[in-house]
Amino acid sequence: MRLPRSVRDADVSGRRVLVRADLNVPIEDGRVADDTRIRESLPTLRLLLERGAARVTVCSHLGRPQGADTSYAMAPVEARLRKLLPDDRVEVLENTRFQPGETANDEGFARELAAHGELYVNDAFGSAHRAHASTEAVARLLPAYAGLLLERELHELGRLLGEVERPYVAIVGGLKVEDKIGVLETLSERVDTMLIGGKMAEQMRAGNPLAVPVELPSDVVAASEFSEDAEARTVPSDAVPEGWLGLDIGPESRRTFAAAIAQAKTVFWNGPMGVFEWPRFAEGTEAVARAVAEADAFSVVGGGDSVRAVHELGLAERISWVSTGGGASLELLEGKTLPGVDAIPEA
Length: 347
What we know:
- This protein has two domains: 7-152, Rossmann fold (3-Layer(aba) Sandwich); 159-334, Rossmann fold (3-Layer(aba) Sandwich), CATH 3.40.50.
- Helices cover 34% and strands 17% of the residues.
- It has 13 helices and 15 strands.
- Helix 7 packs across helix 12 and helix 9 (251-262) runs parallel beside helix 10.
- The longest helix has 15 residues, at 36-50.
- The radius of gyration is 21 Å and the shape is globular.
């Protein structure tokens, strides 16, 4: 795997540095509801300040605004960052996605960003799979380096691409097979066991597009409608009542999946086993989270709901690596080139 040069090797003393961080955090009532991603950006920012950077300008996207929507303004993020890192040399630019040139990877907008620095550091692994102005175009205008978080992500996920301890178990969930077919095909060639849950399991049951067998749930928690308060019951996977929906894996499947994970020496998990945001249908995802945390294995968890599960259950410290990139981690494991990484010169 290609490794970009590190910010550790950059001469930043007395210089202005533009940092692309991942500050895409949830905002509730005008305040940051979860500052995990802000905290994860701190090691790189502190390194730059400690090494005498004259100014550190941080840019990031926040949500998916349609134009300059003030509900996606960076002010709450900047306020939280300043509490965690009170240094006048740090400034935060407005949401990069307020500019149409961001997602268009426009060189004009990239030049506006580049004017804030004499060198550029990309520490936003979660956006490294997107060829945007703040992740790709600007890296070709300034001397570019990988931040500490980006560097660590590539190292930890890269371990899954080399020789691994076996058995190697992959757990994949979510809504659509087509969203993850590439990584499913790649993983199927490398893993010993693949466990599939969520809506994706139903699609796989109808027709497995992979060349190898997969482990699908034997039972599901079915609901009469897609509602948190719907009538629900546990039924065999092949006996879901007409018009009902499988919203979680059932207790037998939880035990089977947990037993397979317990035997693993390498584990990768991406995607929930059901509608995790509703407690009544979260038990499958929680069972997998606990099994991964308890496994005597090198474990990597990526993807929004999977990461949320291990954090909410207090299990994150027991996972070898909790990735900040859902789509980026999948594309890396699929063997795709990440534009934000490829734009940085090799180490």
